[in-house]
Amino acid sequence: MLALVKARRAHGGERIRVGGVAAFTHAAVENLLVKVQASVDEFGLTAGLPIYKLRDIRTPGGERSLEVLPPHDRAETVVGYPPALLLGGTVHGFAKLEKSLPSLDLLIVDEASQMRAAELAMVLPMLGQGGRLVLAGDDLQLPPVVQGGVSGTG
Question: Rounded to two decimals, what is the model's pTM?
Answer without folding.
Answer: 0.76
